[in-house]
Design goal:
- With about 280 residues, the protein is α/β, with parallel strands linked by helices.
- About 45% of the residues lie in helices and about 20% in strands.
- It has 11 helices and 12 strands.
- Strands 6-11-10-9-8-7 form a 6-stranded parallel beta sheet.
- Helix 1 packs across helix 4 and helix 7 runs parallel beside helix 8.
- It starts with 8 loop residues before the first helix and ends with a strand.
- About 40% of the residues are buried.
Length: about 280
């Protein structure tokens, strides 16, 4: 899997603060304050109930620190590392009340993001022996795009654009509204910065031929094409543009699509349909 340097905590802290505020409500953790005597100390462990790839561990650490800076955190499976069922991902030691107050937010982040990283790793494994790369989409949880896309990286995948301002991606509705493929590409050539990459979506090979003839695109998104048409598209492109296959990319189909020779396979399911990994906090 992909081990990467952590993101600056100042970027992640607002997400964690918001989640903690949501969980603590207006009066804090009244259960813990009621039943746990002050000064009670414990060592807790985040334990994996199933195998997977870690992500969200940095956010979990921030959650515990924001609740109580005195808590001691030791991570054994950092973001991007794989683990087996029963593995201890991290240990937290200190005031039991502090650990309990941060528990759910820490596990929500770690479980959700580890699920994305684990699912991404399964898709990436299907591309073995080919140059095809798995990439995510903008089909992310509102407010969590940054960390969900980071989880894709932890699973060995690649990131598509983060926002509408990152690149020019001309979809079918843009083409319809602008009057066709040639008009949109001509507009791009006339107005776009030389620093801005251009991708255009096609769902037919005659559209691809028109894109290649007109020029102006760096990437062509091949939408909902079967494997035979994808192979034809690769032959037509001859390396002149980057080719991205998209649409209904189920795990069972990835190996076949990767073998067609496309450069990228974009998969919305990496983020919108990933199952939260089963992680627990054991005292």
């Amino acid at each position: 899997m992909t081990k990467m340097p952590p993101l600056p905590e100042m970027i992640l802290e607002p997400l964690v603060r918001l989640a903690l505020s949501e969980d603590l409500g207006t009066y804090g953790d009244i259960t813990t304050r009621t039943v746990i005597p002050a000064g009670t100390r414990y060592r807790a462990r985040i334990v994996a109930r199933e195998a997977g790839v870690a992500s969200g561990m940095q956010l979990a650490a921030i959650a515990f620190r924001l609740i109580d800076p005195a808590l001691q955190w030791q991570v054994y499976h950092p973001d991007g590392s794989s683990f087996q069922a029963g593995a201890v991902l991290a240990e937290i030691e200190g005031e039991a009340a502090s650990i309990l107050s941060a528990e759910r937010v820490a596990l929500n982040f770690a479980g959700r993001l580890s699920g994305i990283a684990t699912q991404t790793a399964a898709y990436v494994a299907e591309t073995a022996g080919t140059p095809a790369r798995i990439t995510c989409t903008r089909k992310t949880t509102p407010g969590l795009r940054l960390v969900e896309k980071q989880a894709v990286l932890h699973g060995g995948g690649f990131n598509h654009r983060f926002s509408l301002s990152d690149a020019i991606l001309i979809k079918d509705n843009h083409i319809a509204a602008a009057g066709g493929i040639r008009p949109v590409l001509q507009a791009v050539k006339a107005r776009a910065s030389h620093m801005m990459q251009v991708e255009i979506e096609v769902d037919r090979l005659d559209q691809l031929a028109e894109v290649l003839d007109e020029g102006g695109a760096d990437v062509v998104l091949l939408d909902n094409m079967d494997s035979d048409r994808l192979r034809e598209a690769v032959a037509m492109g001859k390396g002149a543009v980057v080719l991205e296959a998209s649409g209904n990319m189920r795990l069972a189909r990835i190996a076949e699509v990767a073998a067609t020779g496309v450069d990228y396979i974009s998969v919305g399911a990496l983020t919108h349909s990933a199952r939260t990994l089963d992680l627990g906090l054991d005292f």
